[in-house]
């Protein structure tokens, strides 16, 4: 299964993208803004194709296990110069710490992008990733595109 994250718009501090699975829209993705020089926890990841693996330690894992009974948190592996790029709920760039935040809707507050209904979007996405990894024993990866597509 391949997730595809397509850049839609950006500000200096935030990036909003659309996440699709097999070409079908799933949710919005909020990330930090672009910076030529990587700033830990403040810079979006570069384009590429990254495997999604099961992250089973740390505060997000413990919180998700306690709240929802999850056995892992989805994490993008092999991102050059980045580590612990998780997919988890959050609504603003203050929540990202360099991670990917899913949302059912996207908004612009005049300074930065934000997403809404993040927990709901995350839970739906988690279910699809979990099903692919556990039930179907599929490889799950994430293709990140940074060029803006205009039109269809």
Set down the secondary structure blueprint.
Layout: E1 2-10, E2 14-21, E3 24-32, E4 48-55, H1 58-68, E5 73-76, E6 85-86, E7 101-103, E8 105-108, E9 113-116, H2 118-135, E10 141-145
Parallel strand pairs: 1-10
Antiparallel strand pairs: 1-2, 2-3, 3-7, 4-5, 4-10, 5-6, 8-9
3D architecture notes:
This protein has 152 residues and is α+β, with helices and mostly antiparallel strands. The protein has one domain (2-145). The chain is 19% helix and 37% strand. It is built from two helices and ten strands. It has helices at 58-68, 118-135; strands at 2-10, 14-21, 24-32, 48-55, 73-76, 85-86, 101-103, 105-108, 113-116, 141-145. The strands form two sheets. An eight-stranded mixed sheet has the order 6-5-4-10-1-2-3-7. The chain has a two-stranded antiparallel ribbon with strand order 8-9. A hairpin with a 3-residue loop joins strand 1 and strand 2. It is globular. The two termini are 23 Å apart. The model has no long low-confidence stretch (mean pLDDT 91).
**What's the total count of β strands?**
10
Global geometry: globular
**Model regions low in confidence, pLDDT < 50 over at least 5 residues:** none
Distance between the termini: 23 Å
Compact description:
The chain has helices at residues 58-68, 118-135, and strands at 2-10, 14-21, 24-32, 48-55, 73-76, 85-86, 101-103, 105-108, 113-116, 141-145. The chain is an alpha+beta fold and 152 residues long.
């Amino acid at each position: 299964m391949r997730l595809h994250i397509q850049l839609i718009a950006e500000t200096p501090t935030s990036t909003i993208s659309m996440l699709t699975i097999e070409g079908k829209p799933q949710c919005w993705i909020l990330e930090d803004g672009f910076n030529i020089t990587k700033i830990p926890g403040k810079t979006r990841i570069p384009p590429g194709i990254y495997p999604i693996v099961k992250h089973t330690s740390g505060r997000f894992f413990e919180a998700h296990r306690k709240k929802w009974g999850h056995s892992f948190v989805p994490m993008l592996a092999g991102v050059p110069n980045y580590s612990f790029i998780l997919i988890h709920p959050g609504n603003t760039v203050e929540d990202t710490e360099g991670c990917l935040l899913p949302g059912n809707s996207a908004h612009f507050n005049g300074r930065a992008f934000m997403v809404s209904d993040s927990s709901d979007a995350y839970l739906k996405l988690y279910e699809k990733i979990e099903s692919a990894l556990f039930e179907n024993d599929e490889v799950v990866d994430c293709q990140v595109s940074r060029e803006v597509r205009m039109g269809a």
